[in-house]
Amino acid sequence: MSTYISGGCKMGKSMWAQRIALAYAGREPLYYIATMLPGDEEDEARIRRHREERAGLGFITLERGRDILLALDGADPSGAFLVDSVTALLANEMFDARGFYPEAGEKVADDLEAFVARAPNTVIVSDFIFSDAAIYDDTTEAYRAALALVDRRMAARCDNVLEIAAGIPIIHKGVLPI
Amino acid sequence: MVLIIGGSHQGKLDFARERFALSDADVFLCDGSAEQIDTSRRCVACVDRWALNRLRAGADPLAEMEAILPRLKDAVVIATDISAGVVPVDPLMRAWREACGRMTALLAAEADEVWRLFCGLPQRLK
């Protein structure tokens, strides 16, 4: 059963995602797919600390900043997967040192749909960045539109869709799978 | 009146088109230059953009919306929720944010149905 989670910053999305992934895993392997690419020494230290914290919970960390399907190579697809987050994955796929790839939203949505088809016990975390009072430049707006495209396609595809508000899950589709 | 709210790109207009069988000609889509709302259409979308245009022109969008409300009683009105970000530094954007909050509450009070879209999924609030 797949679950898609979004909501505002520091609302408890990752905590709920971890609880759901733990519930999915049972006796199967439990994987955490980290999508953040480290930019500097400070990021690397943070990533090391998070990886150690998750190891204590039983997660095996797989790092994939791009091409998320490759994370399944060598992993057991009957296990539970937590993908955190779509926001970082899309940013990595959309922007690099050479430029800007406007079609990245479709690519990420295609990849995540294929991922969920192969590994059904997956929890995916996104971020709700669509309710601020600002008129953005075209590139930022293209990124927001692409993230919303991924959100909408995956909300249609996943069994459960949750919005986390102040640590409380609002069920927009399916059930709270715990 | 039906009011549909939600963040940017959440599928508000797609939902309105499908649920209320709207054609392109039924929809008045407020863009960066819309100054006057065409109340003869069945649907008025992006009233938040219209409010910004009116503020830029020195007008009061809340008072103007109140004045045309009776002509929107059978319309589907779509408003982007811009209320949940950092308080803008620019006074115009601050005024826009506040005007949209008040305008959305005014529309919701008038509306028979209020829907909120989240990741393309509708939730009926009223």
* Poorly predicted residue ranges of chain A: none
> Any idea how many domains of chain A?
1
**Percentage of β-strand residues of chain B:** 15-25%
CATH third-level topology of chain A:
Rossmann fold
For the residues shown, what is the average pLDDT of chain A?
92
The CATH architecture of chain B is 3-Layer(aba) Sandwich
Which two protein chains have the largest interface (Cβ within 8 Å of the partner's Cβ), and how many residues from each?
A-B, 24 and 25 residues
The CATH class name of chain B reads Alpha Beta
Instruction: Kindly provide the radius of gyration of chain B, computed on alpha-carbon positions and rounded to a whole number of angstroms.
Output: 14 Å
Mean pLDDT of chain B equals 94
**What's the gyration radius of chain A in Å?**
16 Å
Shape, per Cα inertia axes of chain A: globular
Main sheet specs of chain A: 7 strands, mixed
By secondary-structure content and strand pairing, the structural class of chain A works out as alpha/beta
Distance between the termini of chain B: 11 Å
Largest sheet of chain B: 6 strands, mixed
Oligomeric state of the chains present here? heterodimer
Number of strands of chain B: 6
